[in-house]
Amino acid sequence: MRQPDIEIYVKDADLPAVSAWLEGALGPCSTWRQQGQVYKATAEGEGAAFRLAWLPKAVGKWHSLFIDSPATPWEDDRACARAAFAALGVEIRCATGGWDEEEDEEAADRWVKVDAEGEREFVWRTD
Fold it and tell me: In terms of domain of life, where is this protein from (predicted)?
């Protein structure tokens, strides 16, 4: 089932590099504008609009990229993480799948890591 939005965590990549990757994947991006600690932009391509949010150092050294649209070229966070790693060459993390508050906290700590060693699940305690 296609996710309604995408969120990945990016290590050691700057916003210009991420923006260039997004333009190639989604279409032209507007200028990023800062609102508090978050940078926001939009991208448009192939009849779809994408709301983008970039939060530098959301979790330690990890930057959060949020794409608000069910029309991304990726089925889920994992597919986006694979594409981001292929394009950026830096470690990418994402949730293993959907999670809701009725699940236990252990489920919330299960993540996927995509890097030069491949793709694997691990426990990432972000609090």
Answer: Bacteria
pLDDT tens for 10-31 read 998 999 999 999 999 999 999 9
Give residues with Cβ within 8 angstroms of 99, minimum separation 6: 107, 108
In DSSP terms, 115 is beta-bridged to 118
Indicate the domain borders of the chain.
6-123
Torsion of CA 32, 115, 118, 86, to 10 degrees: 40
Alpha-carbon gap, residue 41 to 20, rounded angstroms: 13
- Looking up tokens 């990023």 gives 32
Q: Directed axis angle between helix 77-88 and helix 15-26, to 10°? A: 120
**Cα–Cα distance between 102 and 75 in angstroms, integer?**
24
Give the mean model confidence (pLDDT) for residues 55-63. Answer: 95
